[in-house]
Design brief:
By secondary structure, the chain is α/β, with parallel strands linked by helices. The protein has twelve helices and twelve strands. It has helices spanning 15-33, 46-52, 58-66, 89-99, 123-126, 166-181, 197-210, 223-232, 244-257, 296-308, 313-328, 346-357, and strands spanning 4-11, 37-41, 69-74, 104-110, 130-136, 148-152, 155-159, 186-191, 217-222, 239-242, 265-269, 275-279. The chain binds 3-isopropylmalic acid and magnesium ion (MG).
């Protein structure tokens, strides 16, 4: 088989530090499993804006189009707060998602038993937690037109448009039903159908799709209730499917149930399975450059890339097992260290995972 093309986009803040650890793990996996990879690196976000005046320069977009999978760090930071709206780092990521058609965002929230104590919820509420949020990623209010800030009657007003076409709803719905079939066959669709027409139609489409998946138990929940249920009794959920904005919010909430957002990977997939893989957390400018960030979400994102885009489920499993083994061995970065546990540096955590991957 010809070499698979992997593009690495470190981005800003802690992005470069955590991505370096994922690349370390990739190199070790490539040796252990005799994988053939071509690795490229490009700028994105604020780093790309600083270098080229554009958070998604053309050569980055081209390399992204050519890649089988993209490993993405994180973007943004207060440094670019005053940059004009269209050139902000976040716009680079949003454009990348949109240009590549990465409409299906998979955000698993699993509790590693080793970290039960790190959750802000009681261990008995979260132990064994394993949920998957399927977030629509290229539509909804994030992308709806018209949008803007205008001057009207002597004051400014601002507006965004919340819009989904039936086909957009159907394709994300199918992804969620298909994933539910591979799991516990329970799907909860999250909407605000009591207020918003968009989600009234969303509900109707999900009900329609359910006819094709008689084994899946479909339920509907309003987003405010879902936010509450996630902290009240998160294990009632298996797969959740929702739109772009609600998914953004609920996935941060779900991430925190597991103790640290520093543990959670994500996949953003197109229709054919090509994907961008990134940690759910942001660029954490407060700790950037200190070498203390948790690289595990990015390493686990690499595992997802192996599974969903690179057709290497064994490698995915091996990476996940190495992360578990590192946690079992007591390896903790500062975000997941309990009282009295000495935190490891970012690179030391990466080394620990690599050593378990190599079977040391
Ligand atoms: C996320 C992030 C992004 C989003 C930002 C950085 C644009 O919060 O991936 O969840 O809102 O989608
Ligand atoms: Mg977010």
């Amino acid at each position: 088989m010809s070499a698979r093309r992997l593009l690495v986009l470190p981005g800003d803040g802690i992005g470069p530090e955590i991505v370096d650890e994922a690349v370390k793990v990739l190199d070790a996996a490539a040796t252990a499993f005799e994988l053939d990879f071509e690795l490229e690196r490009r700028l994105v976000g604020g780093a790309a804006y600083d270098a080229a005046g554009d958070p998604l320069p053309e050569d980055t977009l081209e390399a992204a189009r050519a890649a089988d999978a993209i490993i993405f760090g994180s973007i943004g930071g207060p440094r670019w707060d005053d940059v004009e709206r269209d050139k902000r780092p976040e716009r680079g990521l949003l454009r990348l998602r949109s240009e590549l058609g990465l409409f299906a965002n998979l955000r698993p929230a699993m509790l590693f038993p080793q970290l039960a104590g790190a959750s802000s919820l009681k261990a008995e509420v979260v132990s064994g937690l394993d949920i998957l949020i399927v977030r629509e990623l290229t539509g909804g209010i994030y992308f709806g037109e018209p949008r803007g800030i205008r001057e009207e009657n002597g004051e400014r007003s601002a507006y965004n448009t919340y819009v989904y076409s039936e086909s957009e709803m159907r394709r994300i719905g199918r992804v969620a039903f298909d994933l539910a079939m591979k799991r516990d066959k329970r799907l909860c669709s999250v909407d605000k159908a009591n207020v918003l027409e968009v989600t009234e139609l969303w509900r109707e489409i999900m009900d329609e799709l359910a006819a094709d998946y008689p084994e899946v138990e479909l339920t509907h929940m309003y987003v405010d209730n879902a936010a509450m249920q996630l902290v009240r009794d998160p294990r009632q959920f298996d797969v959740l499917v929702t739109g772009n904005l609600f998914g953004d919010i609920l996935s941060d909430e779900a991430a925190m149930l597991t103790g640290s957002i520093g543990m959670l990977p994500s996949a953003s997939l197109d229709q054919s399975g090509r994907g961008l893989y990134e940690p759910c957390h942001g660029s954490a400018p407060d700790i950037a450059g200190q070498g203390v960030a948790n690289p595990l979400a990015t390493i686990l994102s690499l595992a997802m890339a192996m599974r969903y885009s690179l057709n290497q489920p064994d490698v995915a499993q091996a990476i996940e097992a190495a992360v578990e083994a590192a946690l079992d061995s007591g390896a903790r970065t500062a975000d997941i260290a309990g009282a009295g546990e000495a935190p490891l540096a970012t690179s030391a955590m990466g080394d620990r995972v690599v050593s378990f991957l190599q079977g040391d």
